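Handout, section B. The chain below has 315 residues.
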Amino acid sequence: MTVCASRQLVPTSELLIAALKGKYAVGAYNVNNMELLQAIVEAGNELKAPLILQVSAGARKYANEAYLIKLVEAALNSSTIPIALHLDHGEDFEICKACIDGGFSSVMIDGSKHSFEDNIALTKQVVDYAHPRGISVEAELGKLAGVEDNISVSEKDAIYTNPAEAKEFIERTGVDSLAVAIGTSHGAYKFKGEAKLDFVRLAEIQQAVGLDYPLVLHGSSSVPAYLVKICNDFGAEIPGAKGVPEEMFSQATKLGVAKINVDTDLRLAFTGAIRKHFAENPSHFDPRQYLTPARAAVKELVKGKIKVFGTDGKA
């Protein structure tokens, strides 16, 4: 499965190097269907921002990679901004190999559930296959926990990224970027009480790996209260959802973070708009009627993210 557009994908590594130099972060947005992809690319086009489109293993199963590839081709041919295509959370060598052979700009091999040594071995296997083919690789070190709830120092050391280990990991694997665990988590319930990220640890990681090495934040959706309210007002049950405050991202970009992942916020915007539309238009059953406002809601959300991350005008 190969991306065959008249305009080509850009190497993810080029986007991250430029972001490091410019002290901003490139948003990496998960795509599962046409409307999400259209919204993300239209937002990037309007604000002249580079984009990373992410496809997870779940998205590949849901949408069929062949369909997603054709949608990405259409996006490339209808835009002028730099676009990269990235595998998000590849679990094994086989899925990474399939995406590398399929023309992705980059892949993530997530060996964080393994031991340190096994994570190194798996990551190096992917790097050794990817680099001769001009594809960059992202890995993860440390474990993204669930909801933060008074985690003790010893517990933090067990699941958060260790700066010395990060340096060793990069040196032994040759991996191009590293997702670090400093307190973010996947999903809509990231914190109980005050939102906190370990910026002291992030600064130590940056010093250990070097100022010119790109770091990545996963689990970084902000879970905006207004989106949660829209969902809940129209029948959802998402009580107490809380994400990463957007003001924290500017601090992260100063400490080596060049890529920030966004998924949950896209889902909230999309679903909230659909719920609202059905509540206000109970007679509608044409998918175009409710998917149009859903797409528009995601587009506005992504435009906001682009401005927060500092990518507007960087295409």
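Note. Residues 3 and 72 are 8 Å apart (CA to CA). Compare this with the example in section A.
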